[in-house]
Amino acid sequence: MEMLCPECMAPLVSSDGQTAVCPTHGGNYRILFTRFPLAAPAVNALSPESGEVVGTAVAVAGTNPATSMRCVRHPEVPAIAMCVNCRAPVCQTCDFMFPGGVHLCPACAANPRPQISPGRRKLIPWSIGLAVFSFLGLIGSVALARVVPHADVQALGAVGELFSILPALIGVALGVAAIERRLRTPGIVYIGIVGNGVILLIWFLLIIVGLTR
Fold first, then answer.
1. Which of 4, 25, 80, 191 is most buried, most CB within 10 Å of its CB?
2. How far apart (Å, rounded) are the C-alpha atoms in residues 99 and 159?
3. Cα-flanking dihedrals φ and ψ of residue 211, to 5°?
C-alpha cells in the first residue's frame, strides 16, 4: 500500500518496512503499522548473456509491522486500530470507522453497546453527587426560610445560590460533558442532568413566585 508524506503528500520510500523517507524534502518517518505486507512490484528478470526476458521476480521489502498487535479475527494480519467498545485489535478488513475517528470491530458495529470513554465516565458520579447536594441545599434553604420568617431575603438568596443553584449548574454541565455523541450513551448519564435540571426549575419557579408577591 502506498504511503504518503504527512507534510507534502509525496509518496514515501521504504527499504526496511520500519522507516520511510520522503524523496521530495528528505523527511524521515517511522512506520507504526502496515495494513498489508510491503512488497515491491514484479520486475522482469533478464538473462545476463542474451539480455532477453526469462521470467519475472518479486523483490520483497520488510514485512514485519512495527506493532506486535494482530487482528483478533485474522491473526496473520497486523492490526491497524483497536475497537473502542471491546478493545479488540482489528485489521483493515475488520475495521469499521465512524465519524470522529471511532473504530469498531464487526461485532460491535453490528450491535454497539452503550460506551463512554474513561474520562467521561469519571464525570457521572460528580454530576449525580452534585444533584444530591443541590437538593439538600434546596431543602435547607426552604426550611431556613420557614424557621426564620423575618430573615434577610438577600442572605437566604445567597445561601441558596451557594449551596444549591451553583452546584446544580455545575452538575448539569458535567452531565452534558459526559454524553458520548459518537456512540450510544448509557442512561445513567442522564440521571445527573435531569436531577440538577429539576432543581434549577424549582428554583426558577420559587423566584417567580417570590417576585409576584
1. 80
2. 45
3. -75, -30
**Rounded to the nearest 5°, which phi and psi values hold at 128?**
-70, -40
**Global pTM value:** 0.49
Give tens-digit pLDDT for 89-118.
Answer: 999 888 888 776 778 888 877 776 656 667
Length of the chain: 213
Cβ 3 vs Cβ 18: under 8 Å: no
Do residues 186 and 114 lie in contact, with contact meaning Cβ atoms separated by under 8 Å? yes
CB 171 within 8 A of CB 191: no
| Rounded Cα gap, residues 190 and 147, in angstroms | 34
176: Cα separation from own chain's centroid: 15
Q: 148: which DSSP letter?
A: -
